[in-house]
Each structure stands twice: as C-alpha cells, then as structure tokens.
C-alpha cells in the first residue's frame, strides 16, 4: 500500500491533519488502534480557544460546533470568601467555546469518511520503519489478523502519549522534560444544569475544584484528590458534599460518569526526526487546569499541514525543517501557563501553611490586579499563531 502521508492515531490531531491535507490535495491513510465507538465516546477536553474554533470553521468542520457549542466571554475565580469574574472578551476581544472533544472527533470522523479516504480502526502491533530515510514505512495487523505495510513520504505520529511513534525515535535524539504532580482530579459528568453559565475555578483549603459543563443539561465537575484515589471511597453523596464545600452551591443530579485524571507536564524534543513528525499528545501533555490539550494539538497540526503543503507544492523543506522549533515555542509558553494555573489553584501539601498562604496571596493578587487579569485572559483565550 502506498500513500503520501501515513497518520498514526485518529484523535483530534490525526483527524484534523488528514482533513487539512485532503483539502490541499494531499493523500493520507489513518491508522487507529481503538474502535470508532471508543474514540467517539471517550470524554476528554471540552474548551476550545477562539483560534481553534476559527481553524475548525475555516476547514469546514464548524457547522455543529457553532450550533451546539457554548460561547463564554469570561470565567470566575474563587478563593476564601472572594469571587472575581475575569472578563475574557473585555480584556482581549476574544472568547472560548465549550464543545466536547468527543463531539469534535465525531465531526472529523464523519468528514473523513465522506472523503472516501482510508481510516482503519482497531489496528494492532503498529511499527514504524526507516523513519530517517525519505521512504519510511508503517506495518500493522488488522482486526482479522492480517499483516499490512504502508509506504509513504512522511509519517505523522498523532497517537498520543502511549503510542509507538515517539518510541520509534532514537533514544540519543530524544530529550524528555516531565513533571508529575502529587495530586489528580476526580471528575464527574452529571445530569444536572450547570450552576453558572461560565467556568468556576475555586481554590479551597481542602483542595481545588472546578465547575464546567458539556451542555445546558450536563455538568462536568472536578475535585482535587490523591493520584491513587480509590473511587470506591467516593460514593455520590461524598462527592456532592465536597463540591458544595469547595464551590458553594452546585446543582445535583444523577452521576453518569466518574473517573480520576492524573496530572503531569510533559514535553518531548525535538518533534521531528527524519520523516517522522510528532503532533498532539505524542509530543506534549499539559495539566488540564489551563484547558490547553486539544488546543495545542490544533496548533501543531496547523504548522504541520502548512509545512507538508509547501513540500508537495515544490517549495522545499524549509517549513518542515522548522516545524519542531515553531511548535515548541508555543508549547513551552502554554506549559508555563498551565503549570502556573495549576500551582496557584491546587493545594500541594496540607501541612505546609506557609505555601498555602503564599498561593492564596497570589490568587488574590490576580483577582485584584487589572494587569494580572489581562495576562491570564490573554493566555486563556489562546496566544496568536505564528504567521
């Protein structure tokens, strides 16, 4: 089998890249380990920067997003008895939109299938070969046990943190930067109307809490917890009790989903080796506090799609050669913002009273300072893309 770009992973990065390449007349094949129901059903991020919304809209993927997405002009910070609304639109002229990642994936899968171009689900034992040459290959086993080989010009590794793409890069080439946080998020999806039409970030002496939503009838709520938290120790009544304490009043309803999300910061450099390019979670992970995971994937793909379009139009490899450099500039700024939000809003140690006081003072300063509110807003709505 032969194609121009072999894409490993049918998450937002891989699907969006394939769609942008299709619009540029570039052929691709997508290989995905999981089934279609799985990738369309897994709950992930739900907040899109304005730049991500504009990217999806320009790509012809925004019809349902604009019909069902919830546009937010601000967010609220809470600490002790203080509450302050950050006027994102007033401070920056830009907005964010709540639209579940799984919904964006559904839109992109439908768009891909409509093109008739290959999208293979439930592939196993995916391996990358000859990535340092101009004729890389991918081999895999399909759901019937048959082995296949895909020859291509370029491989895009969009297969997430645990996928085979990053592991295929030589150890002497790859540098990894990582921070694992000593806490996690216990998240629920509840059939209850959101307590606010905008997000609420709360710092509490017992730990962080977040109130967000997936629709006008579905609330997404989070509590800071231990990384090894046993969900059996968190019956519904206890969850609601803690949410009420940390957030104030919330609307209760049947809990549809419950899970624990680990927190880490991770960056792999470089994001390119030979004809292999990493994008999305294969190259970087951010703690969810800053709501940047899917948005960083979109930013990566914008650069990679433009670079490959240049290459196939005979404009050379200049942008391909700068892909990692361009993406990493944005990634490290976003990593800093996500780390800052996480450090300011979470309780790292229940015993360290000094640290707690300093973090509280910093949050109070952000809430009271026009300059700090503006800095937060500029990063939250999304930094400008490089031209």
> How many E strands?
20
CATH class of the domain at 5-72 and 95-177 and 264-348: Alpha Beta
Number of continuous helical runs: 13
What is the mean predicted local confidence, pLDDT? Answer: 95
The name CATH uses for the topology of the domain at 5-72 and 95-177 and 264-348 is: FAD/NAD(P)-binding domain
Q: What's the helical proportion of residues?
A: 25-40%
Strand order of the largest sheet: 6-5-14-15-16-13-17-20
In short:
The protein contains 13 helices and 20 strands. With 387 residues, the chain is an alpha+beta fold.
General description of the model:
It is built from 13 helices and 20 strands. The radius of gyration is 21 Å and the shape is globular. The model has no long low-confidence stretch (mean pLDDT 95). The protein has helices at 12-23, 36-41, 50-58, 63-68, 88-92, 101-115, 164-167, 236-247, 293-312, 318-321, 323-345, 353-368, 370-381; strands spanning 5-8, 28-31, 47-49, 70-72, 75-79, 82-86, 96-98, 119-120, 124-129, 137-141, 147-151, 154-157, 175-190, 199-203, 209-213, 219-225, 255-269, 272-273, 276-278, 284-285. The chain has a domain at 5-72 and 95-177 and 264-348: FAD/NAD(P)-binding domain (3-Layer(bba) Sandwich), CATH 3.50.50. The strands form 4 sheets. An 8-stranded mixed sheet has the order 6-5-14-15-16-13-17-20. It has a 6-stranded mixed sheet with strand order 8-2-1-12-19-18. Strands 3-7-4 form a 3-stranded antiparallel sheet. A hairpin with a 5-residue loop joins strand 10 (137-141) and strand 11.
């Amino acid at each position: 089998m032969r194609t121009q770009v072999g894409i490993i992973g049918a998450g937002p990065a891989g699907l969006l890249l394939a769609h942008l390449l299709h619009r540029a007349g570039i052929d691709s094949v997508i290989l995905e380990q999981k089934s279609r129901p799985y990738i369309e059903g897994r709950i992930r991020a739900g907040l899109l920067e304005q730049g991500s919304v504009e990217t999806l809209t320009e790509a012809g993927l925004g019809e349902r997003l604009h019909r069902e997405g919830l546009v937010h002009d601000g967010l609220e910070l809470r600490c002790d008895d203080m509450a302050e609304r950050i006027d994102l639109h007033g401070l920056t002229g830009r907005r964010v939109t709540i639209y579940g990642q799984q919904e964006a994936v559904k839109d992109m899968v439908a768009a891909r299938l409509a093109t008739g171009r290959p999208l293979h689900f439930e592939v196993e034992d995916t391996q990358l070969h000859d990535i340092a040459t101009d004729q890389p290959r991918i081999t895999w086993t399909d759901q019937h046990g048959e082995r296949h080989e895909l020859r291509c010009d370029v491989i895009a590794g969009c297969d997430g943190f645990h996928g085979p793409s990053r592991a295929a890069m030589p150890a002497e080439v790859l540098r990894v930067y990582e921070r694992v946080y000593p806490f996690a998020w216990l998240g629920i999806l509840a059939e209850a109307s959101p307590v606010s039409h905008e997000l609420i970030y709360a710092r509490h002496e017992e730990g962080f809490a977040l109130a967000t939503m997936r629709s006008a009838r579905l609330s997404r709520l989070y509590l800071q917890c231990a990384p090894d938290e046993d969900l059996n120790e968190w019956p519904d009544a206890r969850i609601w009790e803690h949410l009420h304490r940390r957030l104030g009043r919330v609307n209760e309803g049947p809990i549809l989903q419950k899970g624990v999300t680990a927190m880490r910061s991770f960056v792999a450099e470089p994001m390119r080796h030979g004809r292999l390019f990493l994008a999305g979670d294969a190259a970087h992970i951010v703690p969810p506090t800053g709501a940047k995971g899917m948005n960083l994937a979109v930013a990566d793909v914008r650069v990679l799609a433009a670079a490959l379009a240049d290459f196939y139009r005979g404009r050379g490899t200049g942008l391909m050669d700068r892909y990692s450099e361009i993406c990493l500039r944005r990634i490290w700024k976003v990593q800093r913002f996500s780390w800052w939000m996480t450090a300011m809003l979470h309780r790292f140690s229940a015993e360290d009273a000094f640290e707690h006081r300093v973090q509280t003072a910093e949050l109070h300063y952000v809430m009271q300072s026009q300059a700090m509110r503006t800095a937060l807003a500029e990063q939250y709505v999304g930094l400008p893309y490089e031209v």
